[in-house]
Target: UDP-N-acetylglucosamine 1-carboxyvinyltransferase
Amino acid sequence: MEKLMIRGGKELRGTVQISGAKNSAVALVPAALLAESEVVLDNLPHLSDVAVYSEILQELGASVTWNGDVMRIDPSRLQSKPMPNGKVKLLRASYYLMGAMLGRFGEATIGLPGGCNFEPRPIDQHIKGFEALGATVTNDHGSIRISAKQLRGAKIYLDVVSVGATINIMLAASRAKGYTTIENAAKEPEIIDVATLLNAMGAKIKGAGTETIRIEGVDSLHGCRHSIIPDRIQAGTYMIMAAATRGDVLIDNVIPKHLEAMTAKLIEMGVQVEELDESIRIVGMPEYEAVDVKALVYPGFPTDLQSPMTSLLTQASGVSILTDYVYNNRFKHVPELIRMGANIRVEGRSAVIEGGSLNAAAVRAADLRAGAALVVAGLTVKEGVTEIAGVEYIDRGYDHLVDNLQRLGAEVWRETVS
Ligand SMILES: CC(=O)N[C@H]1[C@@H](OP(=O)(O)OP(=O)(O)OC[C@H]2O[C@@H](n3ccc(=O)[nH]c3=O)[C@H](O)[C@@H]2O)O[C@H](CO)[C@@H](O)[C@@H]1O
Ligand SMILES: C=C(OP(=O)(O)O)C(=O)O
Model:
């Protein structure tokens, strides 16, 4: 088993390059399966989810080569095969294979997705979308079978604003007959990124990034080249780390517009934030004010930054209240932060955080962003070594985390323990 070790108390200083976005990559790789010739993805992050996807695609008959941050996917020999639990259970975003295979072959048989299950994460809106497009969906003890003789465009109103359902419906509807409208669609930048790729492949999608997306189905899609947008969650996490260690860090290769909610909250706390064209500079201050944070769908404060933000708020003077309106109970980081001396209580969907210093402890990441929260916390600790287990979760979302932090002056390393 590997652990992440942190001897904290160092101010982070320097420049960090942000990789392509995980939540785009895990949708763009399966989206490529809809093409009949090669798709090239640039700025692909080095993450375990992407590596698992690459293996799944090859098992399905696609040819995949991955060099540096470029992946070439040739799906011309793709076969329609059942995709049982094994690999699809390793990542949440395997649900995109449903929409992609349904669009390509009119059928998909696949196990339920896995990934970070910090609470039950239903996919009823994905299923509702496929059924509206004319597919029959059955669930045989967790094996989902989706099939349609002919997908037909439909008007679909999502009951909840769902990133996954919006993208999955876009994937399948790109190959349906006629027009599909998704109302109450999610507006995250990753949705625009997927629509941009699909349109470059010959799809006809309008309105991505707004609450109404219109898709005119086409008979076939072709290969293309596409560069993945920067990871706003990774960038936001480094912004938090820079502020938490009272450092001075330039976060490079970002789209500052995607980080506005994060930037505004840091400024409200008293952090110095400088927005440049493709980078953001964070200069930490000795004292921060407590603030209230509401995690919402985009363009609100992202739920995926809620956990690391909890750790930063332990560094503010006074009481902050952080409420997550996307998930009911995404607080697996809280008991671990309490082990590190934090004064936090969870009340319903809110965490009430009283500022104070943290101490080193042996803790465990129960999910990806809970892990990020523990890294932020460990970086602030002035004495001793924080040991974080559950590194495999952190590897789902942070490309070259240890190298990046070491370059910024942190004392961080991985250790294999028995
Ligand atoms: C791979 C990926 O992109 N993951 C992101 C995606 O996850 P994911 O696509 O799974 O999240 P959704 O946007 O679908 O979920 C939002 C909310 O809707 C609920 N819901 C969702 C679908 C559904 O069919 N029924 C339903 O009730 C969920 O339980 C949750 O409470 O968006 C989340 C919300 O920004 C992020 O935390 C994840 O990092
Ligand atoms: C919850 C997350 O990812 P996933 O949906 O892939 O589990 C995340 O990125 O914080």
User: Anything to note?
Assistant: The chain has a mean pLDDT of 96. The pocket of phosphoenolpyruvate (ligand 2) is lined by residues 92-93, 115-116, 304, 368-369, 397 (CB under 6 Å). Residues 2-19+230-416 form a domain with the UDP-n-acetylglucosamine1-carboxyvinyl-transferase; Chain fold (CATH 3.65.10.10). The first strand starts at residue 2 and ends at 7.
